[in-house]
Amino acid sequence: MALIGLGLVVWPFFSASWILVVLFGSALIANGTVLLARGGTIGGILLIVAGVVAMAFTGATARALVSFAGFGMIAFGALWLAVGMKFARSRPSIGIVPGAVLVVGGVLALIWPGVALSIAAVVGGIVLTAVGVAVIWGASKPRRVDPGSATIII
Question: Measured between alpha carbons, how far is residue 7 from residues 21, 27, 123, 128 in Å?
Fold first, then answer.
């Protein structure tokens, strides 16, 4: 985890787009394989081919996925604004600010997909690095165990 996190921080666009596309392509291929096993010949073949094509065209696939996420953020932000304005009469900032941030983030992701993916990669990389270091530190720290409190099941 820590090494993947460092990779995301050091090479944000390359590693994030590669990880994103490999996960997406693998999911398509896995779903296609399951569909083939269940008798869905045409759908299974199409999913497998789509997964291979997605992995072959890393840049285009990453931009398409970021654009899809941008549209989703805009839609979710607009929904948040609509519902928030209706129910947050006493504190309108609760209904407006998160929705506005989502809409602005979605628009920025559509305008600059590479920057949006890089920012997400750096933030995710920092989190993964911290979690990885915490796991390594926790695993290497010696612990004292009270023999009376331990339960051994045979």
Answer: 16, 22, 12, 10
Give CA–CA dist 106/70, Å, rounded.
4
Task: Provide the token pair at 1.
Answer: 């985890």
Q: 154: Cβ–Cβ under 8 A, 6 or more apart, which residues?
A: none
- List, in order, residues 6 or more apart from 47 with CB less than 8 Å away: 28, 29, 31, 32, 35
Residue with tokens 């600010």: 97
DSSP 148: T
Per-residue pLDDT tens digits for 54-90: 999 888 888 888 888 889 989 999 998 888 877 766 6
Token pair of 43 as six digits: 């759908």
pLDDT for 11-35, tens place per residue?
776 667 777 788 888 888 998 999 8
The number of beta carbons lying within 10 Å of the beta carbon of residue 102 is 20
